[in-house]
Amino acid sequence: MKIGQVLFSFQGRISRHDYWLKGFLILFPLGLSNVITLFRVNEPGERILAMVIGIVALWPSLAILVKRLHDRNRSGWFAATLLIPIANIIFGIWILVQVWFLRGTKGINRFGDDPVQVKIDTAIGSAAPSSLPYIRKRPVGVSVVGFALIVLSAIRLLIVFILKTDDNT
């Protein structure tokens, strides 16, 4: 799937690999810098710009979330559970585990072909998406967990930096 389809379409499925490379790695730095700008700048014009960027980034963020939920054979409307007060904490953690760490449904599901299988079939020239057994190219789970730990560490350091700066002012 091309990056435009990943970021702007709500149709189909994407693998964890595509989620991390084509979605998260693009949107996370944008969101992080946007949050820093929103809370650290006192100029009204820059705050408005940060809010506009946040609203524009909402569409691609929802698109990749919905496609990962589709890969897990869940409706995109399941993301609406994040709007329920208090319960959104539990649903948010559950959705993060589903989207970040768990493999999608093997084979065809109601949202389309298995994106991992389609890549393998395309690479070897097979026409039918379900004609070959699932082949795992590399252990993705370990690299995803490692990447998540690095990201969480970076967020923690950033929060410490922001709090320390606030104490000095």
Summarize the structure.
The protein is an all-alpha fold. It has helices at 3-8, 16-40, 44-71, 87-100, 115-124, 140-168.
Describe the structure in your own words.
The protein is mainly α. It has one domain. It is 66% helix and 0% strand. Helix 2 packs antiparallel against helix 3. The longest helix is centred in the C-terminal third of the chain and has 29 residues. The radius of gyration is 18 Å and the shape is elongated. The chain starts with a helix and ends with a helix. 17% of the residues are buried. About 7% of the residues have low confidence.
pLDDT averaged residue by residue: 76
Profile the largest sheet: none
> How far from one another are the termini?
48 Å
Give the oligomeric state.
single chain
Helix content: 55-70%
DSSP helical segment count:
6
Strand content: under 5%
From N to C, what is the helix and strand string?
Answer: HHHHHH
Number of strands: 0
How many discrete structural domains? 1
Rough outline:
elongated
What structural class do you assign from the helix and strand content? mainly alpha
User: Which stretches are poorly predicted, pLDDT < 50 over at least 5 residues?
Assistant: 131-136, 138-142
Radius of gyration (CA) equals 18 Å
